Each structure stands twice: as structure tokens, then as C-alpha cells.
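Q: Hi! Curious about what LacI family transcriptional regulator looks like structurally. Here's the sequence.
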Amino acid sequence: MTPPPVKRRPTIDDVAAAAGVSRGTVSRVLNGGHWVSPDALTAVNAAIRKTGYRVNPHARSLATSRANSVAFLLTESHDRLFEDPNFAVLMRGASKALSVHDISLVLIMAGNEDEQRRATEFITAGHVDGVLLVSSHSSRRGLISEIVAAGIPAIACGVPLGFEKKMGYVAADDYDGAREMVQFLAGLGRTRIATIAGPEDTSGGMRRYEAYVDELGDAFDETLASRGDYSRASGALAMTELLERHPDLDAVFAANDMMAAGALDVLLASGRRVPEDVAVGGFDDAPVATTTTPRLTTMHQPFERISEEMVRLLLQVIDGERPAAIVLPTDLVVRESA
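A: Let's find out. The predicted structure is below.
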């Protein structure tokens, strides 16, 4: 006699299908119901009863607790993580600020679609209490939309384009800082001031370019502008293009120090003297600014203060307060490049 088939034990996927919600929503319900709407909570609990899903006792024990961890969500490539020291400064500052509250920082990379999908699943499953969103791109709106839609506490570094009213943020004053740098270069008597702007889908790239255009006014010439992706290599490529178009340019403002360093490489290789022939200004006051020859004149961003404020605002949101936004001033640091 053939024994009856063993009935398959219901899974979280079965519950999600029965409830008409995502797997992540079911996981959040099992982990205490954090960031789940009342309707979704009701649907999931009904699906659990319908499918006969047996809740893990360990998951039940988490119902009144927090994960005691926060995600440091970086929407950049792995190469950018290691090339740009600003990320390390922000991460170190955030970790230090969280340690006071006995909260761990978890680095999550989300530079491509697969990483973004995994990041969304991990974050929305309740493994972290909140998110510190770093280097957000408006072209990657899906990831931010998922975080906002799930009601997960999050604070962005820089203005989260398209989500300014829904997510708190801490930003340096990109616009005023960039205008000050262009004013400084013009004050040196430079009249052919070029720019290497940052990515158009980032708040810093957009606002610093707007400041450059506004400060030059009627003297603005779009052929004196090029764009990079904040990497040193992109700065070198942009500088090469600018010199081909305007060999007589006498100053360049790069939207970050890494691109400024790349511009310096090309200028010096072309036989131009810096700053005698071409003055160079950057933005960030990153460690690279003091390692170039000559050292970079730049706008200082208070990265340690930014990370501390991001943590402070995030913990407030986790505790139920409304998201807030802070804009911090930048400071001109004059060195030998201009």
C-alpha cells in the first residue's frame, strides 16, 4: 500500500501569494509588524491562518524588539567606494555616532540593479531599524521609492531628488559653496573659467553646476562646461575635452576634488603651469586635496558633522518624529592650485 503523500509545509511565499503582498511585507509582519500598513497587516495575518503557516517562535520574540542596526546604503559601484575617501569618512563618523547608542552600522552596496534588488529585500525584511542613504541618484528612484513606500526611517546625505518632502536629509550648501569658488577664481582675474560638473542625477552635481552658470551670468559659455562621474579618470577625460575646445582657458572649477585631481594630471602633462596658466578649484576638501602637486584649493565640506547629524535625525525618525532637513555651510580653503 502506497503511503499518502506528505503535505508540503506552507512557506512565507505561500503566505505572500495568499495575502497579495510581497515576501518582504510578510517578513516584516513576522518580525513585529514594523513599517506595515494596517490593511497589509490584516491581510498577512488572515493568509497565515488560511495557509496554516506556522510562525517561527524566534520571529515572535522579535515583536517587541528592534534590530539594533542601521544600514549605510551606498548607491555607487564598488570601485567608487574604494576610490572616494569621502565615503569612508562618512561611514566612520556614522559608526562612531551610532556606537554611543549601541547600534551597529551595516554597509549595503546598491550600485547596480541586482544589488538594489537585494538591498530592498534585506532592508524591507526588518533586518535594520533605518537607513542612511549615501550618494543617492535620481536615476535610481526605484530603490528610494521602495524605502519610502515601506515607511522605513531613512535620512539621505544630500538632497534626495524627487523625495525632498518625504525623506529627511543633511546636505552641504552646494549652491552657495560653488558660487563662492567661481567668485574666487574670477577675483583672481580669470576670465575663461571652465567647469567639470558632476552627474546630472545627483543633487550636488546639479546644484553646483547651477551655481556656476548663475555666477557667470552673461559670460556663461556652455562649451566651457563638461561633465564627469566624480571619479579621477572622468575628470581627466573632461579636462582633455575642454582643452581641445578652449586651449586658452585660464581656470577650471571641478565639482569634486577627485575630478579636480584628474584635471591637474592632464594640465601638467600638457605643459601648462598651475596656477600660473590655469587655476584649479575643487569641492569637498577630501584627503586627495593635500596629496596633489600643487595642492588643491577647494570648498570644505564638514563630512564628520554631516554624518553625526544624519544619525541624529535618523534616530529621531525611528522614534516616531517627522523627518527634518539640515543644510550646512561650506568653507573656502585656499592652497597652491589657485
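A: A fun detail: The two ends are 91 Å apart (CA to CA).
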